[in-house]
Description:
The protein is mainly α.
Amino acid sequence: MADQEAQRKFVLGRCCKFHWRGIITIIIPTLTMPILLHGLLSNMAEYKCLWLIVTMALMWITEALPIYVTALLPLIFCPILGLVNADKLCQQYFTETIVVFIGGLIVALGIEYCNLHTRIALRVIRIIGGSPRRLFVGIMIVSSFMGLWISNSAGTAMMCPIVKALITELNANNIFPVYMTQEEEPVEEGEPPHPSKITIAFYAGIAYANTIGGLGTLIGTGTNLVFKGIYSDRFPTSTVEITFANFMFYSIPVMVILNITLVIICFLITHMGLFRPKSRTGLIISEANKNRKLMEDVLRQRHIDLGPMNCHEIQMAIAFGSMIVLLITRKPGFFPGWSDLIDRKVVGSSAGIFMIVLLIFALPTQYTFFKYCCGKAPFTAQAIDAILSWEYVLRNIPWGLAFLLGRFLWFRPTYSKYVPSI
Protein backbone atom coordinates (compact mmCIF):
# COMPACT_ATOMS: atom_id res chain seq x y z
CA MET A 1 0.00 0.00 0.00
CA ALA A 2 2.86 2.32 0.89
CA ASP A 3 4.56 1.49 -2.41
CA GLN A 4 1.42 2.41 -4.35
CA GLU A 5 1.16 5.73 -2.50
CA ALA A 6 4.80 6.51 -3.22
CA GLN A 7 4.31 5.58 -6.88
CA ARG A 8 1.26 7.83 -7.12
CA LYS A 9 3.18 10.79 -5.64
CA PHE A 10 6.06 10.11 -8.02
CA VAL A 11 3.79 10.09 -11.07
CA LEU A 12 1.98 13.23 -9.86
CA GLY A 13 5.30 15.01 -9.31
CA ARG A 14 6.54 14.13 -12.81
CA CYS A 15 3.23 15.30 -14.28
CA CYS A 16 3.52 18.67 -12.55
CA LYS A 17 7.18 18.97 -13.54
CA PHE A 18 6.89 18.16 -17.22
CA HIS A 19 3.29 19.18 -17.99
CA TRP A 20 2.93 22.37 -15.97
CA ARG A 21 2.17 24.43 -19.05
CA GLY A 22 -0.88 22.34 -19.85
CA ILE A 23 -2.06 22.60 -16.26
CA ILE A 24 -1.62 26.40 -16.21
CA THR A 25 -3.50 26.63 -19.53
CA ILE A 26 -6.51 25.23 -17.66
CA ILE A 27 -5.97 27.10 -14.37
CA ILE A 28 -5.70 30.61 -15.87
CA PRO A 29 -9.10 30.64 -17.66
CA THR A 30 -10.63 29.10 -14.56
CA LEU A 31 -9.29 31.88 -12.35
CA THR A 32 -10.51 34.58 -14.70
CA MET A 33 -13.90 32.91 -15.28
CA PRO A 34 -15.77 35.17 -12.77
CA ILE A 35 -15.08 38.16 -15.04
CA LEU A 36 -16.56 36.32 -18.01
CA LEU A 37 -19.57 35.07 -16.03
CA HIS A 38 -20.32 38.61 -14.88
CA GLY A 39 -20.16 39.81 -18.46
CA LEU A 40 -22.45 37.02 -19.69
CA LEU A 41 -25.01 37.39 -16.89
CA SER A 42 -25.14 41.19 -17.16
CA ASN A 43 -24.76 41.11 -20.97
CA MET A 44 -21.90 43.61 -20.77
CA ALA A 45 -19.44 43.29 -23.63
CA GLU A 46 -16.85 45.34 -21.73
CA TYR A 47 -16.38 42.56 -19.16
CA LYS A 48 -16.19 39.90 -21.87
CA CYS A 49 -13.41 41.89 -23.51
CA LEU A 50 -11.72 42.41 -20.13
CA TRP A 51 -11.76 38.65 -19.50
CA LEU A 52 -10.05 38.00 -22.82
CA ILE A 53 -7.40 40.68 -22.21
CA VAL A 54 -6.61 39.47 -18.67
CA THR A 55 -6.47 35.83 -19.79
CA MET A 56 -4.11 36.66 -22.66
CA ALA A 57 -1.91 38.77 -20.38
CA LEU A 58 -1.52 35.91 -17.90
CA MET A 59 -0.84 33.47 -20.74
CA TRP A 60 1.94 35.74 -22.03
CA ILE A 61 3.46 36.21 -18.56
CA THR A 62 3.55 32.47 -17.81
CA GLU A 63 4.20 31.41 -21.44
CA ALA A 64 1.83 28.50 -20.87
CA LEU A 65 1.15 28.69 -24.59
CA PRO A 66 3.63 29.97 -27.18
CA ILE A 67 3.31 33.75 -27.31
CA TYR A 68 2.39 33.64 -31.00
CA VAL A 69 -0.40 31.14 -30.33
CA THR A 70 -1.75 33.25 -27.47
CA ALA A 71 -1.98 36.18 -29.90
CA LEU A 72 -4.52 34.15 -31.91
CA LEU A 73 -7.01 33.73 -29.04
CA PRO A 74 -9.12 36.73 -30.20
CA LEU A 75 -9.86 34.84 -33.44
CA ILE A 76 -11.64 32.22 -31.35
CA PHE A 77 -13.31 34.11 -28.55
CA CYS A 78 -14.25 37.49 -30.07
CA PRO A 79 -16.80 35.99 -32.50
CA ILE A 80 -18.02 33.40 -29.96
CA LEU A 81 -18.63 36.07 -27.32
CA GLY A 82 -20.28 38.37 -29.86
CA LEU A 83 -17.64 41.08 -29.61
CA VAL A 84 -16.53 41.44 -33.24
CA ASN A 85 -17.57 39.94 -36.54
CA ALA A 86 -15.10 37.25 -37.68
CA ASP A 87 -14.53 38.85 -41.09
CA LYS A 88 -13.70 42.23 -39.63
CA LEU A 89 -11.52 40.64 -36.96
CA CYS A 90 -9.45 38.57 -39.40
CA GLN A 91 -8.73 41.69 -41.44
CA GLN A 92 -6.84 43.10 -38.46
CA TYR A 93 -4.29 40.28 -38.73
CA PHE A 94 -3.19 41.37 -42.19
CA THR A 95 -3.56 45.13 -42.36
CA GLU A 96 -1.22 47.48 -44.18
CA THR A 97 0.53 48.00 -40.84
CA ILE A 98 1.51 44.33 -40.76
CA VAL A 99 2.39 44.27 -44.45
CA VAL A 100 4.78 47.21 -43.96
CA PHE A 101 6.33 45.45 -40.96
CA ILE A 102 6.91 42.22 -42.92
CA GLY A 103 8.35 44.19 -45.84
CA GLY A 104 10.82 45.89 -43.50
CA LEU A 105 11.90 42.51 -42.13
CA ILE A 106 12.47 41.15 -45.64
CA VAL A 107 14.65 44.14 -46.60
CA ALA A 108 16.61 43.68 -43.35
CA LEU A 109 17.24 40.06 -44.28
CA GLY A 110 18.48 41.23 -47.68
CA ILE A 111 21.08 43.43 -45.95
CA GLU A 112 22.17 40.51 -43.79
CA TYR A 113 22.15 38.06 -46.70
CA CYS A 114 24.78 40.04 -48.65
CA ASN A 115 26.76 40.94 -45.48
CA LEU A 116 26.29 44.66 -46.14
CA HIS A 117 25.74 45.36 -42.43
CA THR A 118 29.27 44.17 -41.59
CA ARG A 119 30.79 46.50 -44.18
CA ILE A 120 28.77 49.46 -42.87
CA ALA A 121 29.74 48.74 -39.26
CA LEU A 122 33.46 48.33 -39.97
CA ARG A 123 33.53 51.48 -42.08
CA VAL A 124 31.88 53.61 -39.39
CA ILE A 125 34.07 52.16 -36.63
CA ARG A 126 37.22 52.83 -38.63
CA ILE A 127 36.19 56.45 -39.17
CA ILE A 128 35.50 57.04 -35.47
CA GLY A 129 38.69 55.40 -34.17
CA GLY A 130 40.19 52.38 -32.44
CA SER A 131 40.16 53.17 -28.72
CA PRO A 132 37.64 51.15 -26.63
CA ARG A 133 35.43 54.16 -25.97
CA ARG A 134 35.44 55.23 -29.61
CA LEU A 135 34.74 51.65 -30.70
CA PHE A 136 31.76 51.61 -28.34
CA VAL A 137 30.45 54.92 -29.70
CA GLY A 138 30.82 53.62 -33.26
CA ILE A 139 28.94 50.42 -32.47
CA MET A 140 26.15 52.43 -30.85
CA ILE A 141 25.84 54.77 -33.84
CA VAL A 142 25.65 51.89 -36.31
CA SER A 143 23.13 50.00 -34.14
CA SER A 144 20.85 53.01 -33.75
CA PHE A 145 21.00 53.63 -37.51
CA MET A 146 20.04 50.01 -38.17
CA GLY A 147 17.22 50.33 -35.64
CA LEU A 148 15.70 53.16 -37.68
CA TRP A 149 14.90 50.85 -40.59
CA ILE A 150 14.56 47.33 -39.21
CA SER A 151 12.99 45.79 -36.11
CA ASN A 152 14.82 45.93 -32.79
CA SER A 153 15.30 42.18 -32.52
CA ALA A 154 16.51 41.84 -36.11
CA GLY A 155 18.94 44.74 -35.75
CA THR A 156 20.37 43.37 -32.51
CA ALA A 157 20.71 39.90 -34.06
CA MET A 158 22.60 41.43 -37.01
CA MET A 159 24.97 43.40 -34.78
CA CYS A 160 25.77 40.58 -32.31
CA PRO A 161 28.09 38.67 -34.70
CA ILE A 162 29.94 41.92 -35.48
CA VAL A 163 30.42 42.67 -31.77
CA LYS A 164 31.47 39.07 -31.11
CA ALA A 165 34.11 39.24 -33.86
CA LEU A 166 35.30 42.60 -32.52
CA ILE A 167 35.54 41.28 -28.95
CA THR A 168 37.42 38.20 -30.19
CA GLU A 169 39.99 40.41 -31.92
CA LEU A 170 40.35 42.58 -28.81
CA ASN A 171 40.92 39.46 -26.70
CA ALA A 172 43.40 37.94 -29.17
CA ASN A 173 45.46 41.13 -29.24
CA ASN A 174 45.21 41.72 -25.44
CA ILE A 175 43.78 45.20 -25.92
CA PHE A 176 41.81 44.95 -22.66
CA PRO A 177 40.46 42.11 -20.46
CA VAL A 178 37.39 40.71 -22.21
CA TYR A 179 36.53 38.35 -19.34
CA MET A 180 36.59 38.68 -15.58
CA THR A 181 39.34 36.94 -13.65
CA GLN A 182 38.67 34.17 -11.16
CA GLU A 183 39.33 36.62 -8.33
CA GLU A 184 36.81 39.13 -9.67
CA GLU A 185 34.03 36.66 -10.39
CA PRO A 186 34.64 33.04 -9.29
CA VAL A 187 33.18 30.33 -11.55
CA GLU A 188 32.97 26.57 -11.23
CA GLU A 189 35.47 24.41 -13.05
CA GLY A 190 34.43 23.88 -16.66
CA GLU A 191 32.14 26.93 -16.75
CA PRO A 192 32.98 29.80 -19.12
CA PRO A 193 34.30 33.01 -17.52
CA HIS A 194 31.96 35.93 -17.07
CA PRO A 195 32.31 38.91 -19.42
CA SER A 196 33.95 42.05 -18.09
CA LYS A 197 32.08 45.30 -17.58
CA ILE A 198 33.51 46.68 -20.82
CA THR A 199 32.33 43.63 -22.77
CA ILE A 200 28.87 43.88 -21.23
CA ALA A 201 28.70 47.51 -22.37
CA PHE A 202 29.20 46.46 -26.00
CA TYR A 203 26.51 43.77 -25.95
CA ALA A 204 23.98 45.65 -23.83
CA GLY A 205 24.67 48.82 -25.79
CA ILE A 206 23.58 47.39 -29.15
CA ALA A 207 20.29 46.26 -27.60
CA TYR A 208 19.65 49.75 -26.21
CA ALA A 209 20.77 51.43 -29.43
CA ASN A 210 18.53 49.32 -31.69
CA THR A 211 15.57 49.94 -29.39
CA ILE A 212 16.16 53.69 -29.34
CA GLY A 213 16.72 53.77 -33.09
CA GLY A 214 13.39 52.02 -33.56
CA LEU A 215 11.65 55.04 -32.05
CA GLY A 216 12.67 57.24 -34.95
CA THR A 217 10.66 55.81 -37.86
CA LEU A 218 7.35 54.10 -38.40
CA ILE A 219 8.97 50.85 -39.54
CA GLY A 220 11.59 50.86 -36.79
CA THR A 221 9.36 48.94 -34.41
CA GLY A 222 5.93 47.38 -34.60
CA THR A 223 4.61 49.64 -31.84
CA ASN A 224 4.96 52.72 -34.05
CA LEU A 225 2.99 51.02 -36.82
CA VAL A 226 0.31 50.02 -34.35
CA PHE A 227 0.05 53.63 -33.20
CA LYS A 228 -0.35 54.80 -36.79
CA GLY A 229 -3.02 52.17 -37.44
CA ILE A 230 -5.01 53.04 -34.33
CA TYR A 231 -4.74 56.78 -35.06
CA SER A 232 -5.93 56.35 -38.66
CA ASP A 233 -8.82 54.13 -37.57
CA ARG A 234 -9.85 56.28 -34.63
CA PHE A 235 -9.63 59.65 -36.41
CA PRO A 236 -10.42 58.93 -40.09
CA THR A 237 -11.54 62.51 -40.78
CA SER A 238 -8.47 64.16 -39.23
CA THR A 239 -6.70 66.64 -41.49
CA VAL A 240 -3.37 65.74 -39.86
CA GLU A 241 -2.03 62.49 -41.29
CA ILE A 242 0.83 60.57 -39.71
CA THR A 243 3.25 59.98 -42.57
CA PHE A 244 6.67 58.41 -42.59
CA ALA A 245 8.33 61.79 -43.11
CA ASN A 246 6.61 63.87 -40.40
CA PHE A 247 6.88 61.03 -37.85
CA MET A 248 10.61 60.77 -38.53
CA PHE A 249 11.24 64.52 -38.43
CA TYR A 250 9.49 64.81 -35.07
CA SER A 251 11.00 61.67 -33.50
CA ILE A 252 14.64 61.58 -34.56
CA PRO A 253 15.92 64.80 -32.91
CA VAL A 254 14.55 64.09 -29.42
CA MET A 255 13.67 60.41 -29.26
CA VAL A 256 16.78 59.11 -31.07
CA ILE A 257 19.63 61.62 -31.02
CA LEU A 258 19.05 62.87 -27.47
CA ASN A 259 18.31 59.44 -25.99
CA ILE A 260 21.21 57.66 -27.68
CA THR A 261 23.56 60.43 -26.53
CA LEU A 262 22.41 60.03 -22.92
CA VAL A 263 22.70 56.24 -23.06
CA ILE A 264 26.23 56.44 -24.51
CA ILE A 265 27.30 58.84 -21.75
CA CYS A 266 25.75 56.61 -19.07
CA PHE A 267 27.54 53.49 -20.36
CA LEU A 268 30.85 55.36 -20.66
CA ILE A 269 30.55 56.47 -17.03
CA THR A 270 29.25 53.21 -15.50
CA HIS A 271 31.13 50.63 -17.60
CA MET A 272 34.12 52.42 -19.16
CA GLY A 273 35.47 54.61 -16.38
CA LEU A 274 34.67 57.99 -17.92
CA PHE A 275 35.54 60.81 -15.43
CA ARG A 276 37.10 58.11 -13.19
CA PRO A 277 40.67 57.78 -14.51
CA LYS A 278 41.98 56.29 -11.23
CA SER A 279 39.36 53.53 -11.04
CA ARG A 280 40.21 49.98 -12.13
CA THR A 281 38.16 50.33 -15.32
CA GLY A 282 39.64 53.74 -16.03
CA LEU A 283 43.17 52.35 -15.71
CA ILE A 284 42.28 49.46 -18.06
CA ILE A 285 40.93 51.91 -20.65
CA SER A 286 44.03 54.11 -20.33
CA GLU A 287 46.24 51.08 -20.94
CA ALA A 288 44.10 49.99 -23.89
CA ASN A 289 44.41 53.46 -25.46
CA LYS A 290 48.15 52.84 -25.78
CA ASN A 291 47.33 49.96 -28.15
CA ARG A 292 44.95 52.05 -30.21
CA LYS A 293 47.16 51.86 -33.29
CA LEU A 294 47.16 48.06 -33.09
CA MET A 295 43.37 47.96 -32.93
CA GLU A 296 43.03 50.32 -35.85
CA ASP A 297 45.32 48.04 -37.86
CA VAL A 298 43.17 45.03 -36.98
CA LEU A 299 39.99 46.82 -38.04
CA ARG A 300 41.65 48.00 -41.25
CA GLN A 301 42.69 44.44 -42.06
CA ARG A 302 39.21 43.08 -41.39
CA HIS A 303 37.79 45.75 -43.66
CA ILE A 304 40.33 44.94 -46.37
CA ASP A 305 39.51 41.22 -46.05
CA LEU A 306 35.95 42.00 -47.14
CA GLY A 307 37.34 43.15 -50.47
CA PRO A 308 35.75 45.79 -52.68
CA MET A 309 31.97 46.02 -52.78
CA ASN A 310 30.64 43.42 -55.18
CA CYS A 311 27.60 43.74 -57.43
CA HIS A 312 25.44 41.99 -54.83
CA GLU A 313 26.24 44.50 -52.09
CA ILE A 314 26.00 47.52 -54.40
CA GLN A 315 22.52 46.53 -55.58
CA MET A 316 21.34 45.90 -52.01
CA ALA A 317 22.72 49.27 -50.89
CA ILE A 318 20.90 50.99 -53.78
CA ALA A 319 17.68 49.09 -52.95
CA PHE A 320 17.96 50.03 -49.26
CA GLY A 321 18.58 53.69 -50.09
CA SER A 322 15.71 53.68 -52.59
CA MET A 323 13.36 52.26 -49.94
CA ILE A 324 14.26 55.11 -47.58
CA VAL A 325 13.69 57.70 -50.32
CA LEU A 326 10.34 56.15 -51.31
CA LEU A 327 9.12 56.08 -47.71
CA ILE A 328 10.13 59.68 -47.00
CA THR A 329 8.85 61.13 -50.28
CA ARG A 330 5.56 59.21 -50.41
CA LYS A 331 3.76 62.01 -48.60
CA PRO A 332 6.28 64.31 -46.88
CA GLY A 333 3.74 67.04 -46.10
CA PHE A 334 5.84 70.08 -47.04
CA PHE A 335 5.81 69.28 -50.78
CA PRO A 336 3.70 66.97 -52.95
CA GLY A 337 4.82 63.37 -52.65
CA TRP A 338 4.84 60.69 -55.33
CA SER A 339 1.62 59.21 -53.94
CA ASP A 340 -0.12 62.57 -54.48
CA LEU A 341 0.93 62.52 -58.13
CA ILE A 342 -0.80 59.18 -58.72
CA ASP A 343 -4.47 59.85 -59.47
CA ARG A 344 -5.65 56.50 -58.15
CA LYS A 345 -6.66 54.94 -54.85
CA VAL A 346 -4.80 55.91 -51.69
CA VAL A 347 -1.23 54.60 -51.93
CA GLY A 348 0.28 53.50 -48.62
CA SER A 349 3.83 52.86 -47.45
CA SER A 350 3.43 49.17 -48.27
CA ALA A 351 3.55 49.96 -52.01
CA GLY A 352 6.98 51.60 -51.70
CA ILE A 353 8.46 48.86 -49.52
CA PHE A 354 7.19 45.95 -51.59
CA MET A 355 8.33 47.63 -54.79
CA ILE A 356 11.84 47.19 -53.37
CA VAL A 357 11.05 43.68 -52.08
CA LEU A 358 9.95 42.67 -55.56
CA LEU A 359 13.20 43.98 -57.07
CA ILE A 360 15.53 42.21 -54.63
CA PHE A 361 13.79 38.91 -55.39
CA ALA A 362 13.88 39.53 -59.15
CA LEU A 363 17.34 41.01 -59.81
CA PRO A 364 20.39 38.71 -59.98
CA THR A 365 23.47 39.07 -57.80
CA GLN A 366 25.62 39.56 -60.92
CA TYR A 367 25.13 40.29 -64.61
CA THR A 368 27.64 37.96 -66.23
CA PHE A 369 24.76 36.36 -68.14
CA PHE A 370 25.08 39.21 -70.65
CA LYS A 371 28.31 37.56 -71.74
CA TYR A 372 26.47 34.27 -72.22
CA CYS A 373 23.85 35.99 -74.36
CA CYS A 374 26.67 37.19 -76.61
CA GLY A 375 28.18 33.71 -76.76
CA LYS A 376 31.28 34.60 -74.74
CA ALA A 377 32.91 32.18 -72.27
CA PRO A 378 33.07 31.16 -69.52
CA PHE A 379 29.58 29.70 -69.54
CA THR A 380 27.74 29.09 -66.30
CA ALA A 381 26.68 25.64 -65.19
CA GLN A 382 23.97 26.80 -62.78
CA ALA A 383 21.32 29.46 -62.29
CA ILE A 384 22.39 32.83 -60.91
CA ASP A 385 21.03 33.61 -57.46
CA ALA A 386 18.77 36.56 -56.81
CA ILE A 387 19.77 39.39 -54.47
CA LEU A 388 17.71 37.66 -51.76
CA SER A 389 16.80 34.00 -51.53
CA TRP A 390 13.20 33.09 -50.66
CA GLU A 391 14.46 30.00 -48.80
CA TYR A 392 16.61 32.28 -46.64
CA VAL A 393 13.56 34.42 -45.86
CA LEU A 394 11.48 31.39 -44.93
CA ARG A 395 14.16 30.15 -42.54
CA ASN A 396 14.89 33.45 -40.84
CA ILE A 397 11.84 35.71 -40.82
CA PRO A 398 9.83 35.59 -37.55
CA TRP A 399 6.38 35.12 -39.07
CA GLY A 400 4.80 34.92 -35.63
CA LEU A 401 5.48 38.63 -35.10
CA ALA A 402 2.67 39.34 -37.55
CA PHE A 403 0.29 37.58 -35.17
CA LEU A 404 1.64 39.64 -32.27
CA LEU A 405 0.94 42.85 -34.18
CA GLY A 406 -2.52 41.53 -35.02
CA ARG A 407 -3.20 40.97 -31.35
CA PHE A 408 -2.73 44.74 -30.83
CA LEU A 409 -4.97 45.63 -33.75
CA TRP A 410 -7.85 43.30 -32.90
CA PHE A 411 -8.73 45.65 -30.06
CA ARG A 412 -9.47 48.50 -32.48
CA PRO A 413 -12.84 47.28 -33.82
CA THR A 414 -13.84 46.10 -30.35
CA TYR A 415 -12.94 49.43 -28.78
CA SER A 416 -14.64 51.55 -31.42
CA LYS A 417 -17.80 49.43 -31.17
CA TYR A 418 -18.35 49.73 -27.45
CA VAL A 419 -16.66 53.03 -26.56
CA PRO A 420 -18.21 56.26 -27.86
CA SER A 421 -16.11 58.57 -30.00
CA ILE A 422 -14.39 61.46 -28.30
